[in-house]
Amino acid sequence: MVPLKRRKVVSSSGAGSTGSTGRDDVTSATRFPQVVLFLLERKMGASRRAFLSQLGGKNGFQVEELFSERVTHVICENNSGEEVRRWLQSQAGSPAHLLDVSWFTESMRAGRPVEILDRHKLQEQQIKEVEVVAFSTPSYACQRRTTLDNHNAVLTDALSLLAENAELSDEDGRGVAFRRAAAVLKSLPEPVTGLTQLRGLPCLGGHTLRVIKDVLENGASSEVEATKQSERFKALKVLTGIFGVGVKTADQWIREGILSLHQLQDSERTLNRAQQAGLQHYEDLNQPVTRAEADAVAAVVEEAVASVLPGARMTLIGGFRRGKLTGHDVDFLITHPEEGREVGLMPKVVSWLDSQGFLLYQKTTRNSYLEAKDGPARPSSNMDRFERCFSVFKLPEEARRRAKEARGAAEETEPCSGPAAVSQVKGEGLKPWRAVRVDLVVSPISQFAFALLGWTGSKLFERELRRWAGHEKAMSLSSHALFDNKQSRYLRASSEEEIFAHLGLEYILPSERNA
Ligand code: CTP
Ligand code: MN
Ligand code: MN
Q1: Residue 491 lies in a domain
Q2: For 339-355, what is each residue's pLDDT tens digit?
């Protein structure tokens, strides 16, 4: 083998690299244009990979730093064919040779790509189950980066459905347990293939593991399938799908024999204002809101805010801030850089929107938050105290179209499939607007960072932040403030980063809070 020092001298002699290795320390010209290598770091390790890559380059092989469709030979060490194929499937597909490192070392010795023999090819069962990589992850969701690309959607969909069913059955504890388990699986870097990989992961109880086992072995969980089919679950979903109808009301109606919208309408039950609006706009409100529609709503709210209080600022929060492509509503946080100027802002915004015909329904609650000198009475007693407005927007087709165009002609034009198209199919004629749920929150600038963090979500991420604060740091976190119980004082912050720092957590981007 060439000693390290001499290799360095050779590589720095700079003959102008033509090998597209992505490594500037490899300089030999490409001698085998038909062969493009990619060395899989998994199990090989980064330093050995770097060394072998350099060796390949020196011998005139093209070694790619990143996997791409150009790659013809994938070189692996200690991986089974099955593992590598699974990994390849997650990459831009390519029918490359999957080879053991022995092919590489023999080629290096020969100074050319040697013929691929059977013994060079990756075997299916090269490794035993005990050697399968086990995953590990921190306990609290707020310690993890959970992006929207989930490698275990089949499992997390199953667990989320069970969580939803528990929540709809007023069993919040069970609901949270399933949500926590789903969040752990969402954060894994690869698909789970066997239960043994899950040993040592937090938040996975016996019930959850049974569900996962079922899905891994049979492709579906019998409990999930049975739940989906259950009349009660279906009715709870339909009824709580009405804006303004909570779990308790839905449960009461079901006990009275009301299982569908038709039965509800026929029952002539008195509905409150929110429920009336919910029933009236049921179809629209159960149609996911797109990012372009969120933009359209944002433009309207922006105009309202600017008209009634110049200098006030509006921020998109909730799921869209986390990068979601659709949502059940659109959430905004409004503030003013001068403390106190935000007082009375909400009624003005609401009446501007109303006068312009943008509101189908709204209910505003006043700010009832007061800071006590000795800290918050109960951990959650100061949640939800902002001046806020739950509303149903009337979003004109014209505004949707403009926002969609602004979002870029680059995005493919969708086929005729919006709610307007739905009502057209039903023969209701083309409705020139759609109803959209919109939440508005106003916060004073001194609480803005807490409000921003508290309203960006996800709900589980928020819950975990508060659990972390309470259990690990003896602090109380709300959307208004952070109180340190040991020091008996509030900890101020003007950015989300500062709050994470106060909590002793690494900063997590909004797009990584999709737990
Ligand atoms: N929130 C809250 N109090 C409520 C309702 C919501 O503090 N009574 C917070 C939630 O914790 C969440 C954020 O507001 O962080 C947004 O809630 P919501 O709109 O329900 O959820 P999204 O994450 O935006 O999901 P979706 O895209 O479905 O709207
Ligand atoms: Mn939302
Ligand atoms: Mn909301």
Answers
A1: yes
A2: 999 999 999 999 999 99
Cβ–Cβ under 8 Å, residues 458 and 144? no
Task: Provide the residue range defining the domain that includes 331.
Answer: 289-369+381-502
By alpha-carbon position, which residue is closest to atom 23 of ligand 1? 319
Tell whether 133 is covered by a domain.
no
CA–centroid distance, 185 to ligand 1, in Å, is 22
**DSSP string across 13-45:** T-----S--S-TT--PPPS-TT-EEEE--TTT-
- From ligand 3's centre to the CA of 164, what distance in Å? 17
In angstroms, the Cα distances linking 230 to 27, 224, 236 are 66, 10, 10
Task: Please tell me the number of the ligand nearest to residue 515's CA.
Answer: 1
Give every CB contact of residue 364 below 8 A, 6+ residues apart in sequence: 346, 347, 350, 387, 388, 389
Q: Which ligand is nearest to the CA of 328?
A: 1
- For ligand 1, what atom is nearest to the CA of residue 319? 24
* CA–CA dist 329, 438 (Å, integer): 5
Q: Are residues 439 and 305 in the same domain?
A: yes
Q: Do both 151 and 110 map to the same domain?
A: no
For residues 117 and 14, state if they share a domain.
yes
40 and 108: one domain? yes
Ligand 1-lining residues (CB < 6 angstroms): 318-319, 324, 327-329, 331, 384, 439, 454-459, 462, 479
Per-residue model confidence as pLDDT tens digits over 205-255? 999 999 999 999 999 999 999 999 999 999 999 999 999 999 999 999 999
**What is the tally of helices (H) and strands (E) in the chain?**
21, 14
Whether residues 241 and 352 share a domain: the answer is no
Residue 79 CA, ligand 3 centroid: distance in Å: 46
Burial class (CB in 10 A: 0-12, 13-18, 19+), 421: middle
Q: Are 214 and 360 members of one domain?
A: no
Query: Can 214 be counted among the known catalytic residues?
Result: no
Is 284 annotated in the active site? no
The residue ranking higher by pLDDT, 2 or 320, is: 320
Same structural domain for residues 32 and 92? yes
3-state DSSP assignment of residue 460 = helix
Domain count across the chain: 4
Mean per-residue pLDDT, 35-39: 93
What are the residues whose beta carbon lies below 5 Å from ligand 3 (ion)? Answer: 329, 331, 439
Q: What does the alpha-carbon distance between residue 200 and residue 86 come to, in Å, rounded to a whole number?
A: 23
Can you give the CATH number for the domain in which 264 is found? Answer: 1.10.150.20
pLDDT band of residue 89 (cuts 50, 70, 90) is confident
CA of 34 to the centre of ligand 3 (A): 55
Is 439 an annotated catalytic residue?
yes
Rg over alpha carbons for the chain, rounded to the nearest Å, is 29
Judge if 89 and 210 occupy the same domain: no
pTM greater than the 0.85 cutoff = no
- Which residue from 329, 363, 464, 477 has its CB within 8 A of the most atoms of ligand 1, so it is best to mutate? 329
Q: Does residue 1 lie within any of the structural domains?
A: no
